[in-house]
Amino acid sequence: MRNSTVRAVNRLTTRWAAAAHAPAGNTGTVFTAAGLWPLLALLADGAGGPARAELAQALDIPAGAASRAARELLADLAGVRGLRTATGLWTDAGLPLEEDWSAKLPAGARGPLTGNPDTDAKALDAWASERTDGLIERMPVLLDEDTLMVLASALALRLRWIQPFEEWEGELHTGPWAGRPVRTLCRSTSLLDRVGVAHGPTCAVTLLEVVGAAGVDVHLVLGEPEAPAGGTLTTGIAAVTRALPLTGASLLPDGRPGPGLAVATVTADSPAPRLDIETVAFEVRSEHDLLEHARLFGLETATDPQSGHFPGVSSRPLAITSARQSALARFDAVGFEAAAVTAIGIAAGCAAPARPRYRARRAEVHFDRPFGFLAVHRTSRLVLAAGWVAEPEAA
Predict the structure, then answer these.
(1) CATH placement of domain 3-158+284-348
(2) Which tens digits make up the pLDDT trace of 10-67?
(3) Which class would CATH give 160-281+353-389?
(4) CA–CA separation, 374 vs 284, rounded Å?
(5) Which strands make up the sheet holding 147-160, listed edge to edge?
């Protein structure tokens, strides 16, 4: 993948994470800038005036280079094992599209909008469900008789752990989830540096790398108990993308060098190091109205219906009326699933111990309170999905 594009997508992920707060109702959150960024790039290519400048700022690349970067990114994502991606465009029969813009769109579904919201919703929902293997069942777009165009992306990731966890149903003994029956996941490894500590501007975080079998890994991110979700996630993103140094447990001092982490040199029956891991299974679903953070995504001007903002898309004045993302993440003993569908709607603008004999390093890490997670493409360091676990899966 092109390094400049990966960095641009990861910067959008970081800004989105920084805006994240612990959601109301202890529901957690999950989002993917990798599913949104290509759509913003395609729109930037056809935008004009202030809308074009705002989209370029959100993308961190010039608008003139955005369409090519989006096509290259989508092609590269299609080559990631375990990851399925798709794009789709649906237009009203009476909407003229500029050939220069439509010819540069990536290959994907093309379809009509009938003007009947119920009919169109059924077709779009079917596309979303099929492209995500049923993980996302509905297209997250607001449709009415005035909708002239829908631009959408779908992303579905399925991976299995190289080393599965053992699962047991019981109660945690520490943390805010103590005393509740949860699906607890445990395993041990001799690779101490699967866990490490990074220090951000506001807090330290502990990161655990859970290695997938298809070139994508999931990093669990635990901050200090009172640290905000946004700060914990942004520090985690900086560490996994190597913008911040991460110190592995083999180099950490004895004691408690990071949140949820204990390291010690002990007398043992083997000199081999050991890392003991305890975490929880989780499932998180989120619905995001991207226009609630329109400035963050470069969509503030583009939503003004008093004028048109996409002269490169159509000679008819157009304004954005809806921008939403539906996302899901599941983490269990054998693997991880994540899916997201992002849709932008556009309408017309006005216009056991033996006898000890050795000294050995031991570490243990416990994720027994809310934490973040990041699904990361191992080679490029592109963050494919990010989120926050507020509640574990009940047993």
Answers:
(1) 3.30.497.10
(2) 999 999 999 876 444 457 999 999 999 999 999 999 999 999 999 999 999 999 999 9
(3) mainly beta
(4) 13
(5) 109-113, 83-92, 147-160, 335-348, 318-331, 282-289
